[in-house]
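ping. complex inputs:
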Amino acid sequence: MTEDDKLALAALRWQLEAGADEAVEEWAQDRRKKAAPQPAVAPPRAAPSPGPPSSGPPSPEPPPAEPPARFDEAPAPPPTRQAAPRPAAPRPPVGGLTSPQQAVASAREAAAAARTVAELRTALEAFEGCALKATATRLCFADGNPEARIMMIGEAPGAEEDRQGLPFVGVSGRLMDLMLSYIGLDREKVYISNVLFWRPPGNRSPSAEEIASCLPFVERHIELVDPAYLVLVGGISAKTLLARSEGILRLRGRWYSYQHAGLAHPVPALATLHPAYLLRQPGQKRLAWQDYLKLHQAVASGANPLA
Ligand code: URA
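pong. complex structure:
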């Protein structure tokens, strides 16, 4: 074994110890290779600073950043010289609905008319008020057992979910399944859906209008399933359903009372980290594990965590 191989092995061990136990890319990348020389570009101009230039030591490593609203399932491909595709601009609702308000009103009406989960799905199939439908391959409605006591709500379908029409069946779904298995749960014991029913193109962050047009269906979905516990997976889900503005690192790990007009009683809702975030920040799995244990305690004891 060469010295280089030994170093590579040590780096791998270190990653394993840090919790990186999943490969998220299809092909291994040799990160020891020197990056190809970049074309000369003028450095960005420094922002004008009111004070003298700092000569102190470099600031310490910042803590893991608050997860951005949306994660790609796979890391971005290495940069190429081609022009980067522009992120798709949010499009207006389709199907003759000319304003976001009209889209929300139409969503409310269609969702309220659904008497069963199957009818809700049919209503969504026919709904034309969310522009994401135009770019998605298919509707991604739900997976798991609608009779289960636990309903998990993620953010939006990724590429694999868009292909299969089922939530959390990609890389992050596999991590979620694994974490659920550690507390004795599987897709027979949970019901899974998302805040968005269609994939945002390129996995971009959903716009406020897109979320608003899907929300009446999500709320009706919760009413119809009437779960004993809700698990809000990731920032978009937690912030949307709890109507909170804090980031997920603040919201996670606590039980909230989810209330809605059509529910006979408030549902205890636990906010937790999104598995896609955990794939990028494996050190944070520690926090997610605490959340899953909290869920396990509540489910196993049958106690109302809000009492
Ligand atoms: N991320 C989500 O939030 N939901 C999915 O269904 C897949 C990935």
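Residues 154-158, 161, 167-168, 170, 172-173, 194, 234, 276 surround uracil (CB under 6 Å).
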